[in-house]
Amino acid sequence: MDRKIIIGTRGSELALWQANFVKDSLEAIHISAELKIIKTQGDRILNLSFDKLEGKGFFTKELEEELIAGTIDIAVHSHKDLPTENPPGLIIAAVSEREDPAELLLILKDCTDVRQKLSVKFGGLVGTSSNRRKAQLLAVRPDLEIKDLRGNVPTRIGKLRDEKYDAIMLAKAGVSRLGINLDEFHVEELGATEFIPAPAQGVLAIQIRERDHILYEALQDLNHPDVAAELSVERNVLKLFGGGCHLPLGVYCRKDDDKYQVFTSKAEDGEGFPDRLFIESDTLEGLPETIVAKFAKDRKFPLKVFISRDISAGSYFRRALEKNKIEIEARSLIRTVRTITRFDSYILKNIDWVFFSSKNAVEYFFQLNPTFPKKVKFGVMGTGSEDMLRKNGHFADFVGESTDTADVAADFAAVANGTAILFPGADSPMRSIQQGLSAETKIIDLPVYETVLEENVEPTGADILVFTSPSNVEAYFVDNLLEPQQKVIAIGKSTGKKFDEMGVTYTLPFSPDEIGLAEAVFGI
């Protein structure tokens, strides 16, 4: 191109990084560019939370006005800040690669309590002005106090440093782009499938005038069509809900093994408990409409759900179901019994890792009051075991998040092969993780409990039956049959394998925890 391109941008440090990234990318394809800084409504009004600001696009409107007027040629936006409809005459010509859309919870070290989920002390004060973040935070930690937090990324971190909050939540993408050192804080990273991000989080949008065809063609060298396809799902869901930045909506779409996976969280407001949904599809066609239909106010939920374990009064799963007036029948069909009361602590002398395949393994192992002569690492199967490990004052260095134990075994082997590993567990373990380790790895099995099946198990008339282990499946179907109208959810592929053997169709949650279970029930 023979003309210099004028790039419009906000003046924050992050916005300037983004604009300079686009400027450098243009110059790499031999297009000269310069920046013009434009102040937006969102930059000027810092005393109100996002849901109190008027209209939509309060970080983008002024840039779009200058683009329409012709005083700039390109507007660079954080894609998540854009309204779902372009103003007449404007289009998104290109989108960037997606930075990791995870969230970061930055916590003052004096306010950190590893025994709590997310590691913020009980009753802690967390800063965020996002209703989406607020709803998801309170869903897992209802004890937290949430207070509005405005300003650019360095300003927000400065407010935490000044102890105006115990913790704050930020998008990982912004912190990564600015290269900010966070060593002074305890940092919890919340992945996009655990804590669902805003639609298009982590992506830059390059907006131009629709009639600027030559510039459009030039910008295709910077465009990522695969990202644009995934964002079309996220932003169309947002559009169908009629929402903007203030809507407590998280949507994340990704492609995994030739399938599209979409995770959605939606609450009525920042104080409301969010409904969550996980959908997997071979195609993107019709996905936004399918997702929105699941959240319809008049949809019919099952009347009753049975789950084969005890569920506490304040658990995520119970609150998620009771919000939708679903009755819960919770009873374990097995008992666990401790098999040892002490063990020789010498066994821990040369141990590098301790791996737990269940919450029971964690609980019974720490009842033995183990003393570690040196620092060891901990691995766990799933977030339930991770939470139990936290309650005993330890962090997990490895968390197996897949429902397929073979995948977890491969991931764990990548970090633990060749070390000495202790496996506290049941007296007859499946040894799925152990079998994935190399011959050079020293494996020590320590039976700390045994499983006993209950007898004469009563049937349930629930619409959905959730089975939490293969043993619970065995116990129930000794005396009972599945009714034609009943549907089954199985936690983990080992549990699902039991139903495969029985020829029973079942749903496998994306994650083997209470959030995953709630998503599975909501999706049926």
From TrEMBL:
Cofactor(s) essential for the protein: dipyrromethane
The keyword Transferase is assigned to this record: yes
Catalytic activity: 4 porphobilinogen + H2O = hydroxymethylbilane + 4 NH4(+)
Enzyme Commission number: 2.5.1.61
Pfam families per the UniProt record, alphabetical: HEM4, Porphobil_deam
Sample GO molecular function, one term: hydroxymethylbilane synthase activity
Cofactor binding note: Binds 1 dipyrromethane group covalently.
Keyword Nucleotide-binding applies: no
Domain (Tetrapyrrole biosynthesis uroporphyrinogen III synthase) ranges: 318-506
Modified residues (S-(dipyrrolylmethanemethyl)cysteine): C245
Domain of life the protein comes from: Bacteria
Top EC category: transferase
Keywords: Porphyrin biosynthesis, Transferase
Pathway(s) this gene product operates in, as recorded in its UniProt entry: Porphyrin-containing compound metabolism; protoporphyrin-IX biosynthesis; coproporphyrinogen-III from 5-aminolevulinate: step 2/4
Domain Porphobilinogen deaminase N-terminal positions: 5-214
SUPFAM superfamilies registered for this protein in UniProt: HemD-like, Periplasmic binding protein-like II, Porphobilinogen deaminase (hydroxymethylbilane synthase), C-terminal domain
Protein's job: Tetrapolymerization of the monopyrrole PBG into the hydroxymethylbilane pre-uroporphyrinogen in several discrete steps.
HAMAP family recorded: Porphobil_deam
Note: The porphobilinogen subunits are added to the dipyrromethane group.
Binding partners and assembly: Monomer.
Name assigned to this protein: Porphobilinogen deaminase
Gene, per the UniProt record: hemC
